[in-house]
Amino acid sequence: KEINNKVCDLIDGCTLCVHGKISYIDELDEIDNVNVRLKENKEYRLGRKVKPEVQWAGDGVIVLSMFLPTGERTSHFASLEIARNLGLKETEVIHKQIMHPAEGTYVEVKGVLPFSIDLEEVRMPEIIPNLEPEYVEKIVREKNLKVVAATVGEDEHSVGMREILDIKHEGIEKFGFKCYYLGTSISIEKVIDAAIEVDAKIILISTIITHGEIHRINMRRLNQLAIEKGIRDIWNRALERLQFLIP
Ligand code: B12
User: Fold this and answer.
1) Domain with 165 in it: what CATH number?
2) Which residues form a coiled coil (predicted)?
3) Dihedral, CA atoms, 165, 167, 173, 179, nearest 10 degrees?
4) Pocket around ligand 1: residues whose beta carbon is below 6 Å from it?
């Protein structure tokens, strides 16, 4: 016989590929036999409907993980209440981990989803294809696009920003962007001044998120200062010009 892609082609398919080849022996109990069980989850095996599954097709088992700022016992029962309120059936706590006692408890709750999804009714947004890297690079080089980047305020986390920029990390340099990385804990003023100095059309900043809203303050300051220094408009026009990137 001709050998195709799968080893089991030699025997016209194995039982994993050709379900009809499975010979069931569990036929004695009239109420609980293999045919009854197969009938119960037929629609999930035929691919028309879908439910999360763990043990068998369409069992509907789902696991929720949550952190509650309460002690172990309270978290246990509160998490079950949450799962029940979400509509899950047969709820059960399967894992608990007390974080620092002053913080609370991490809980995992198992439950059964009481509904299924009809795959023909699933709404999916249209796939927007990514621009070809060669196309992006061509435009970037033609326009000689420059980028000024820094972590601002008192942010010392340089690694993420370098990842975005560095060619060795597949960063935007590989598309031909000329990147001016100013470093860490840079003032917003310095970022704006550098952008003006090198005629950068793009500014990338990274900043720590804090309860004091320092991230929002920094972003607003960047916007405000760009307006004050007269480059926000230029920036907006640059963005308009960048629209041509979208075919
Ligand atoms: C390494 C690290 C440090 C190192 C940084 C070394 C360095 N040179 O970068 C050191 C030890 C200095 C450090 C110090 C601190 N750290 Co720290 N640190 C981390 C850690 C473990 C990893 C960060 C990292 O490099 N990740 C790898 C990179 C590749 O991922 P990334 O940073 O997320 O970047 C990606 C995206 O976010 C995105 N991205 C990032 N920047 C940008 C920018 C733009 C424009 C775009 C488009 C995308 C983008 O793209 C990147 C690539 O995929 C994180 C925890 C974590 N697991 O994330 C904490 C973490 C960031 N640190 C934290 C904290 C609190 C601190 C300290 C305040 C701790 C302290 N009490 O002293 C200090 C602050 C120092 C300071 N002044 O900034 C918190 C920040 C929480 C917050 N509110 O934002 C984190 C989240 C840890 C935590 N859960 O508590 N830290």
Assistant:
1) 3.40.50.280
2) none
3) 50
4) 154-161, 163-164, 204, 206, 208-210
Nearest-atom number in ligand 1 for the CA of 154 is 77
The share of the chain scoring above pLDDT 70, in percent, equals: 92
Alpha carbon distance 93, 63 (integer Å): 9
- Which residue has better confidence, 233 or 35? 35
- Please tell me the residue having the least CA distance from ligand 1 atom 7: 157
Task: List, as one string, the DSSP characters of 42-82.
Answer: HHHHTTSEE---SSSTT--EEEEEEEESS-HHHHHHHHHHH
Say yes or no: 218 and 148 in one domain: yes
Containing structural domain, residue 5: 1-40
Distance between CA atoms of residues 200 and 178, nearest Å: 9
Q: Give distance in angstroms: CA of 80 to centre of ligand 1.
A: 34
Residue 222 Cα to ligand 1 midpoint, Å, equals 21
Q: Per the domain annotation, does 97 fall within a domain?
A: yes
CATH number at residue 91: 3.30.30.60
Distance 179 CA to ligand 1 centre (A): 21
Residue nearest to atom 16 of ligand 1 (CA): 157
Ligand 1 centroid to residue 185 C-alpha, Å: 13
The residue among 120, 149, 169 that closes a domain is 120
- What's the whole-number average pLDDT of the chain? 90
Number of domains, the chain? 3
Q: How confident is the model at residue 102 (pLDDT cuts 50, 70, 90)?
A: confident
The alpha carbon of 157 and the centre of ligand 1 are apart by a number of angstroms equal to 5
pLDDT at 134 over 60: yes
Give pLDDT tens digits for 30-83.
Answer: 888 888 888 888 889 888 899 999 998 899 999 999 999 999 999 999 999 999
d(CA 192, CA 197): 9
217 shares a domain with 139? yes
* Protein residue closest via CA to atom 26 of ligand 1: 160
